[in-house]
Amino acid sequence: MNIGVPRERQPDEHRVGLTPSAVEQFVAAGHACFIEKHAGVGAGYADLEYEKAGGRIVYSGEEAYGRANLVLKVSKPTEEEVGWLNDGAILTGYLHLAAGRRDRIDALLSKHVTAIAYETIQADDGTLPVQSAMSRLAGMMLPQVAGTLLQNDRGGKGILLSGLAGLPPAEIAIIGAGTSGTAAASVFLDLGSSVTVLDRDLARLHTLEERLGHGRRPVLMVAYESNIRKAVSYADVLIGAVHIPGAKAPVVVTRDMIASMKPRSVVMDIAIDQGGCVETSRPTTHHNPTFVAEGVIHYCVPNMASVVARSASQMLGHAALPFTLALADEGLEAALHSHPALRRGVALHQGRVVSTKLAFHLGLPEVTL
């Protein structure tokens, strides 16, 4: 199979869809990899490294797409990139179609592209092996970004996450006890912050309690509206980490809740790539990462992990490689048949929307794969 690895074109996206070590594995299996020039620069990979791994450097995005049966990306494609896709091609990446533009979806459907969203590849036990890898990384980033945003020079309240002897620590409220919320809670606790975690799923809260052991433990609350309102009101840092695979995130924090926060507190809505779970949120970029609403600093960068691009690209490679290699080695239909987790990640196939949640979001009849 011909594999295309284009340079990412979304703003401030520095990750790459395939590392040189992964290219080496595709080439060893008999596949051709076409890497767009400078595709790996943001992640610290030179073109020469890809060539040594057996990849072939091409000099435009149009060629990277045009030569490929299988395109391996990170972020969802731009309008220009959709135009470059071959009819019937396979496209993989963190596509977040439910939060995307309808005309972009229609264009993919018209080209009979099979779109496989990394965030909805789901194992039999319900885990999300590719999404979880990036969610864990993003969750571990949250404390370092939050600590910076609380500084006076960033407009924050001027407090330490950890506090000091005689000084209370920062109050952190995390809505969502999934992979990213759990990772963030663990690091915040290690730093000495006071942490409250809310989730609608009581079993998740029990799992989090067991995972964090008997050291410093968070306050664990069921995410009823009254509990969310209470936690938001005293939080120095509020993290929205609500995720429903393949669906737009529900708004669980309203504007009036945000208005109840202390001035210069921080909101970090990491569900923003799926539309956001805070009513006052809107997407921002790494160049302009924050805005102020209701007197509160908002950080809503969809591709948060792109500024640790080397680590993120390597993590993506580890998590996605078994699935993308299966597509190349077995072909699309055979791979979907033999790998149920991969089949659950398919959003579009042969001109149809085959994701139940995406079809519901778009108001289309359900079509099974």
Care to describe what's here?
By secondary structure, the chain is α/β, with parallel strands linked by helices. The protein has 14 helices and 15 strands. It has helices at 20-28, 47-52, 61-66, 79-84, 102-110, 129-149, 179-191, 202-211, 225-234, 255-259, 309-330, 332-338, 340-344, 356-362; strands at 2-5, 32-36, 56-58, 70-75, 90-94, 114-117, 171-175, 194-199, 219-222, 237-240, 266-269, 290-293, 296-299, 346-349, 352-353. It has an eight-stranded mixed β-sheet. Strands 9-8-7-10-11-13-12 form a seven-stranded mixed β-sheet, sandwiched between helices. Helix 2 links the parallel strand 2 (32-36) and strand 3. The model has no long low-confidence stretch (mean pLDDT 94).
Short description:
The protein has 369 residues and is an alpha/beta fold.
Mean pLDDT: 94
* Main pleated sheet: 8 strands, mixed
- The number of strands is 15
Task: Give the CA-based shape.
Answer: globular
Radius of gyration of CA atoms, rounded to a whole number = 21 Å
In order across it, which strands form the biggest sheet?
Answer: 3-2-1-4-5-6-14-15
Termini distance? 22 Å
> What structural class do the secondary elements suggest?
alpha/beta
Taken in chain order, the helices and strands follow as: EHEHEHEHEHEHEHEHEHEHEEEHHHEEH
Percent strand: 15-25%
Instruction: Count every helix, treating DSSP H or I runs of 4 or more residues as helices.
Output: 14
User: Which percent bin holds the helix content?
Assistant: 25-40%
Low-confidence stretches: none
